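Below: protein 1.
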Amino acid sequence: MPQHVVTIGSRSGLHARPATVFAQTAARQPVQVTIARDGRNPVDARSLLSVLALGAGHGDSVILAAEGDGAEAALEELAVLLTLDHDAREEG
């Protein structure tokens, strides 16, 4: 099963706005994607509440995983979203 370890880029962590963008993008993927933090059980990346419940802050590492056709492309797209500083766009 392909996995990507990703560092959260938003200065305020994976809060409401970046988590919403992430969950919506995960829902559009052709495969189910999970996200996990700190050795916890993985959660469905399509679930906004589950993603928020991870409590991932700036600089925290999370593990994205998926299986099936298109898994690697899905993980790469989602990884890019997580590394962006969505908070920087709010200021500009």
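Below: protein 2.
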Amino acid sequence: MTKSTFLNLIVFLAFPISLFANHSIALPETVPVTSPAAEGGKLVGKVVESPANTAVSFATVALLAARDSSITDGVVTDENGAFTMSNVAAGSYLLRITNMGYQTLFVPNIRVSPEANLVDLGSITLIPEAQKLAEVVVRGEKSMIVDDIDKKIVNIGKDMLATSNNVSDLLEKVPAVSLDENGNPQVRGKGNVVVLIDGKPSNLYGSDLPTILQSFPANLIERIDVMTTPSAKYEGEGASGVIDIITKKTKIRGTNGGVRIGLGNKNNHNVSGNLSYRAGKFGLNASLSGQSRGMTWKRTLSRDNFLSEESAHLEQSGTGANKGINAFGRIGMNYDFNEKNALEIGMNYSQNSNRNNSNLLNETSNTSGAIVETFRRLNNSTGNGNNMNFNVDYRKKFDKKDQQFNFTTSYSIGESDGESYYVQESEIDSLMRDQQNLRNNNRNSLFVNADYTWPITSKATLETGFRTRMSSNDNTNSFYNKNLETGTYVFDENISNIFGYRDATYTGFMTFSQKTDDWGMRVGMRVTDYNQEINQISADRKFDVHFLTLVPSLALTRKLGDASQLKLNYSRRVQRPEADWLNPFTDVSDPRNIQSGNPNLRPEFTHKAEMGYSNYEESGGFGPSLFMDYSNNAITRIRTLDESGISLTRYDNVGRELSYGFETDFSKKIGDVLKINGSGRVFRSEVVSQIAQIDNRTWSYSGNLNAFITLPADFRASAYVNYEGPRAIAQGTREGVFLANMGIRKDLLEKKATISFNVQDIFLSRAYKSQLMTETYSQSSLWQQTNRQVNLTFQYRFGKISASGDDA
């Protein structure tokens, strides 16, 4: 039984819905008598669907007294549609059967005689509902936050959906989660987060994570799981944690779906549609989305060079624009062979194209302030990419409750290409440039996962599994300089690169969970064999790397009440170098600030511990905690400077990083008008490396707040604010970043449609500033998006039914 189905049943049982009779059948007035009953009779029967006579699972069966229609008993049909009512007192009754997507059925003339002990009602047929959506919508929302033993589950309710177009918008509303300037998720303000989609690595959907998150429509998401100290069940990567984005898998019979159209300024438009169909054992779902996006930005940099014989000062100022179009589609089919075996197959396809341009002015001056050189760098770049993913999921349930076997496999193939043109203008002939960069990337990945859950006893469970992932990445970067005399482009082998990358990960895990009435424990171990093959084809250098890692985890909980508990978690994480971090290609798009990969990177290991309390109910709750993250051999971006004033940035293993502090998230429903949720933290961050001469330590604070307000005439408003305080980074500090968004929506057409208006970065305050200070240079920089995003969205839902009021 899925969680959404279970909640629907609770709603039916706790708040019986009185509907008028649409259909009834007559039964014989006499029934067989087998033997006297001491405590009352027993009613049995089976609920089936017309016209196929397939079982109707989890229907609500209520027994009403014939004299006044009061409820005397009630049960829910099992997965085969069967139901049993025991100890039914002698008398006359009326049976009412309800289920979402079907007409309510009343069965009259149910008589239980004093001497009868079994009344067999046989098969009772329900007719699928063919009326309008509003007649069968059941309103019952889940608690927003659910605290599990090793993660926090954030259910995506209608308020979050109404003001979100894609997954990126949703993530900003999740406690403890934020996005950096490039759209990559952060947990507690730090990157290195593993993002999963339905438990599978997100890179199966493409190589550019921000584009993937912007491509996924928000209304396809059921919940988001956030794991700050993940258990051994999850891969050991992700020093900051794991985010698992769970998509909807409705099994409601019938056809339903929706379309969404959004119009925004600066060419930020989107359109999406989804469709679900299910009949009997077969289900089909499909979705398609497209998005155009536009963003303008500005950048400044000021740097003093202490290495040169005469101290030099560099000033940079520039503007740019990024434009893109992306499309995403998926189709899936599922088939339930029986109540114990189910198969799902699916395919995803994504495509994106982008165009970027920038105009960067560089001025270098001496100690007296006189400008010694000036040049302007113009850049125009285009890129295209596509990715296709195929997946198969098989689920096997056993006779024993919660005993289950799952098998998943995915294969992904993708490619991307791009070209950039650089024109450098200057009055100094030696600084004039006309350059071309051609890029090509081909990648593929295979993912196989099998896990088995064995309930040893009713309170003890063993989970074990095996996972393998193999991927390859071939990257070609060709750089050309134009000969100004001949007008031809000449290949530059010094900064061109052909890079081949292969990896294979074999990992197995085992977790043991034990629960009592008050205590819970989950202990686990993951063993990973990681093999990496790096081929610097241009340099004729090839070598292999092999890591064997152990990732233990421990989680303890102590219940203090129905909704409150104490929790203690520990996990060891590993951050393995990514292909882009290893690729030694030198990016010279900014010739005064070049970037390169480091093929000599080693893994980073992080110890994470957390102790907290939580109390979440439907009306709200909170979850304060103390946390500590410690990593040695930390992977950090390091900037070095040469005497000519050119800086080189690349990832390196520099030393240790430590952060510890206090955090809390909270949610509160205030009457029927206001709902708020958010999170906040105060923490100490330290980055220390004797080799790199780094010693940065500072206290910081950050937090976010969401407010959802119900207004008259079916209007709803929302507001979001986020602040990431100053913190220590390698070689310096990063200043605080503030962001504010707002939205308002109105339901239309009997709540089948919604129109919403949203504004992101209202005050244009999302500015990223940093200050770096070493023995060789001092630098301050700024990057800021210069256009706020304004969006008007219309959404329409169609179909016979709607799922529990959670869709918006």
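The longest helix spans residues 3-14.
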